[in-house]
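job 3f2a | input accepted
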Amino acid sequence: MKILLTGANGYIGMRLIPLLLNENHEVICVVRNAERLSVDNQVRKQLTIIEFDFLESKHVVLPKDIDVAYYLIHSMSSSTTDFDELEAKAANRFVDIVKDTAIRQVIYLSGIVNDDQLSKHLTSRKQVETILSKGHFALTVLRAGIIVGSGSASFEILRDLCEKLPFMITPKWVNTESQPIAIRDVMFYLTSVLDRKECYNSAFDIAGPNKMSYKDMMLTYAKVRELPLKIVNVPVMTPKLSSYWLYFVTATSYKLAQNLVDSMAVDVTTTDFRLQNMLDHKPLSYEEAIKLAFDRIEQNQVISSWKDSKVSGRFSAKDLNRFIQVPKFGCLLDHQQKKVNNVEATLNNIWQIGGKNGWYYANFLWKIRGFLDKLLGGVGLRRGRTNLATINTGDALDFWRVILADKEQRRLLLFAEMKVPGEAWLEFYIDDKNILHQNATFRPKGLKGRLYWYSMLPFHYFIFSGMLNRIAE
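job 3f2a | predicted structure (473 res):
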């Protein structure tokens, strides 16, 4: 079948791509920036990629013979005020654009909406369902709660909390019940309803077998990981305070934290097991889902992570396009170079920089810089990196964003998403004479930017020099 995949760069979309290709489907990915589709060249050759933003008014021509589409567009992380308007606009735009195609089914991953009092996030999900139901196609809605899997926002936030805090004072929303589902089960349902006529024009809840509070989820996580954890509930922590708590302790952005806290007061459990019974499927337990997620992490097989999404940083995908050309005029530069004896080993060092591997020299200073960035409202170092040995264009890398990662060109270009009074690039490349070049480029904004650069010069001198030497070893 010919399948249209929207939100292909997202956590779910990235996992759907290999599954659909393995079933010999023809996959058309609609993304805002083709360069940010983090797949290897072999996979890319099997895809048709269309650049388009459903929030823009320009038109796009899609193939007429599309059979099925996955609608995976969400805007919750990009705003705390008008994300519902953005989601409605994107959904209406989608319905309008596909009306000239032969599409017969759209599959939408939504949220469980059984509570009488829904959050703004879940109300928006329900609104998108209503908009999509007006299209000329059959709509299949899968409603999920907390998704447990390596790289998912919910799991990574839970992991951050439990791994870092042996003692927690928590607000009353930790007693809200949820029904977590393993990412493996989500993918099973998404692929199993594909062109299944008995699923046309229907909405199904999908959930795991365990109904449990967020507190129970954290305690169970700690048990599986053999971590000490004590949780004390207090009724006085306001949603705003809770949002700041999540923001400072975990890798989430403040916007996402605020929207998540808003939804955590809503019960997301279900008694709807129609799809599970129809497909004769037994979902994984919560403990099994955790263990499976850590198997992936330990084997360095995390396919996708919410941290690589553009919304985890300061800039949109469109903004990042203009930083691919490193400016020369009006900039301050720290350039260092060193002859390398083993190009392949040096490239491997470059491709493994950041995250758990650190920055090879004076890591404590990088950690201090990350902590200060977090205090100022920046991303800090907590995003880390999705994989230990591979980097793709568009990936998050601590408080940097990968603008270009090309091993054949022997070049890695990073753009700073930390809070700085200007714009900063960090570039590594090896020339034809096997000389490793390391450029730290800063385009200051006014006097404040220049004062910032010169105040950092003493640290730059030995940090960048030490980093270059370690990389070249």
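job 3f2a | DSSP finds 15 helices and 19 strands in the chain.
job 3f2a | closed
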